Structure formats: C-alpha cells, structure tokens
Amino acid sequence: SDLLKHLLSSDARIDGPIDPLVEADYATVTPDTKVALLRSIFNDAKLVVVKDKADDLIGLITKIDLIEYLAARRS
Fold first, then answer.
1. Which has the closest alpha carbon to 27: 51, 3, 2?
2. Exposed/middle/buried for 48, CB within 10 Å: 0-12, 13-18, 19+?
3. For the purposes of burial, counting CB atoms within 10 Å of the CB of 12, is it exposed (0-12), middle (13-18) or buried (19 or more)?
4. Which of 25, 31, 22 lies closest to 55, judged by CA?
5. Would you call 50 helix, strand, or coil by DSSP?
6. Which residue did the predictor score with more confidence, 59 or 74?
7. Which of 4, 45, 51, 66 gives the lowest tally of CB atoms within 10 Å of its CB?
8. Above 90 in pLDDT, residue 28?
C-alpha cells in the first residue's frame, strides 16, 4: 500500500529508486518473542521483522498475520 500511495501522490516513477518508500516504522523481534507482546508492538510499528541470533531475517509479521493467527486459534 505504501508503494501505491507513493506512486499516486508524487511524481515518482515505477522504475525509480525505492529509497523514498523505506520507513523505519518496524520493530525487530526474535523467534522467542511471545505472541502476546505483538499486540503492544503493533501499537508503534506497522511491521515486525523476525531475526535470529545471527541477525538473519527469518520472516515478517503484519497486523493481519496476527489477526489471522488469533482467529484460527479460536476456531
């Protein structure tokens, strides 16, 4: 959605650099982070980056991922 907003709201080109899209609106956690903490993390961040002890990217979690996970557990 950020890419679409950027392309629609400025003179940006689809073949231009992504630098204007890069935001620091994310949090970094480890695989040991408790699911319960994600709720408060998402109060301040749009995205959660999951990294291991070697600082390698394991995955990304969005708010919708958390909602889907919690909804599936209630079923």
1. 51
2. buried
3. middle
4. 31
5. strand
6. 59
7. 4
8. yes
Q: Taking the CA atoms of the chain, what radius of gyration do you get in angstroms?
A: 15
11, burial (CB in 10 Å: exposed 0-12, middle 13-18, buried 19+): exposed
**DSSP 8-state code for residue 49:** E
Is 49 in contact with 27 (CB distance < 8 Å)?
Answer: yes
DSSP state of 31: T
66: three-class secondary structure by DSSP: helix
Which residue's entry shows tokens 């992504």? 18
| Residues 34-62: tens digit of each pLDDT | 999 999 999 999 899 999 999 999 999 99
Distance from C-alpha of 4 to C-alpha of 32, rounded to nearest angstrom:
34
Structure tokens at 42: 């998402």
Instruction: Specify whether the CB–CB gap between 62 and 47 falls below 8 A.
Output: yes
